Structures are given as C-alpha cells and as structure tokens.
C-alpha cells in the first residue's frame, strides 16, 4: 500500500453448531470463511480490524443458515484468494442449490473440463469461502461422500448436508 487509501480487512469469529467459523472481508466483499485455527488473511492487503459491516452481515446470514432460515447467501464475495481453474470451479459451485449435491465429475463438466475430477477435488480442498461457497455439496461418484478438509472432516460435511435435508452415508471404518 502506497499513497492511496488504507484498506481494511474485517475479521470476526462466530460460534456455530459445527464449531467456530472465522470470517474475513475486504472492501470488495467476503474473502474467507474458515473453520479451525483462525481467519485466513494471508494474501489480503490491509489493516486488520475486528468486526465491520460485511463480516457482521455474513455472520448474521450464517446464523440464519444454521437455524434453517436461510438457503442462499446475499453477501458480495471477494475472489482474490483463488484464481484460474479453481476460481472457475468455485464460482460454478455457487449455482448448486441448497439441499442438492453434485459429483466432482459433474462439477468438472460444469466448467467445461469433464476430465478434471482431481483438479476439482483440489479446488474443494482449497476453498477459501467454505459453507458460503458450498463445497460440502460435492460428492464422489456414486454418491460416496468423498472428502472434506475442514475440522471434523466427513462428520462436518455430513452435518452441513443434514442441515440441508441431504442424508449422507459415511461407511464405518473397519
């Protein structure tokens, strides 16, 4: 940052039924929704401030989502933490409706590259906007759960899908 306006990074941590969720936003919109150790702000340029209009709006909408009162999010998204193919995949994923799922292969086809199943999986694992960009709605072929890189792994994925009315069968470990 030189000479121009000082940019602000809003951060907020909220309690949810799946654990703490950390939000980070820039002037352009919500940039990160993460679970685990704290808000992801690496790669964002600005002065960190607790709270702010964007993260508070996102927190309110997430609260409504977890209560079952919201099925879509109405908050501007800042895509700067993801680029190229991953961004295209995540932007296509936003169109998968609440309560529905898509396979990694179907999502690859949605972005015009049906053979890129593994690359779609990588995009899901690096999604900086979890829940709002619903990577939990992506399943492996045949309805198998696939993976979920958030804390709690497949159990968290199962909880999010159950909230949306989708039953996910996770095979018992043997």
Keywords:
6 strands, Double Stranded RNA Binding Domain, 174 residues, alpha/beta, 30% helix, 2 domains, Arc Repressor Mutant, subunit A, two-stranded parallel ribbon, 4-stranded mixed sheet
- Low-pLDDT stretches are none
Estimated structural class: alpha/beta
Number of helical elements: 5
Name given to the CATH homologous superfamily of the largest domain: Winged helix-like DNA-binding domain superfamily/Winged helix DNA-binding domain
Q: Calculate the mean pLDDT score and round it.
A: 91
Oligomer kind: single chain
For the record, the CATH architecture of the largest domain stands as: Orthogonal Bundle
Listing every helix as H and every strand as E from the N terminus to the C terminus, the arrangement reads: EEEEHHEHHEH
Chart the SSEs and their pairings.
Blueprint: E1 8-14, E2 21-26, E3 29-35, E4 47-50, H1 53-67, H2 84-93, E5 102-103, H3 104-110, H4 117-125, E6 138-139, H5 153-163
Parallel strand pairs: 1-4, 5-6
Antiparallel strand pairs: 1-2, 2-3
Verbal overview:
The chain has 174 residues and is of the alpha/beta class. The protein folds into two domains: 8-67, 2-Layer Sandwich (Double Stranded RNA Binding Domain), CATH 3.30.160; 84-163, Orthogonal Bundle (Arc Repressor Mutant, subunit A), CATH 1.10.10. The protein has helices at 53-67, 84-93, 104-110, 117-125, 153-163, and strands at residues 8-14, 21-26, 29-35, 47-50, 102-103, 138-139. It has a four-stranded mixed beta sheet with strand order 3-2-1-4, covered by helices on one side. It has a two-stranded parallel ribbon with strand order 5-6. Helix 2 (84-93) crosses helix 4 and helix 3 packs across helix 4 (117-125).
């Amino acid at each position: 940052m030189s000479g121009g306006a000082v940019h602000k990074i809003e951060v907020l941590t909220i309690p949810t039924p799946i654990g703490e969720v950390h939000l980070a936003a820039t002037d352009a919109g919500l940039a990160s929704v993460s679970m685990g150790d704290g808000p992801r702000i690496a790669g964002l340029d600005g002065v960190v401030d607790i709270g702010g209009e964007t993260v508070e709006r996102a927190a309110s909408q997430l609260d409504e989502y977890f209560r079952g009162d919201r099925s879509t999010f109405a908050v501007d998204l800042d895509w700067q933490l993801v680029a190229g193919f991953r961004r295209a995949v995540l932007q296509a994923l936003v169109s998968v409706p609440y309560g529905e799922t898509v396979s990694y292969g179907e999502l690859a086809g949605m972005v015009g590259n049906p053979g890129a199943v593994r690359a779609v999986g990588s995009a899901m694992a690096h999604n900086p906007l979890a829940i709002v960009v619903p990577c939990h709605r992506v399943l492996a072929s045949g309805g198998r759960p696939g993976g979920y890189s958030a804390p709690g792994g497949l159990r968290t994925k199962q909880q999010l899908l159950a909230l949306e009315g989708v039953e996910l069968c996770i095979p018992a470990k043997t």
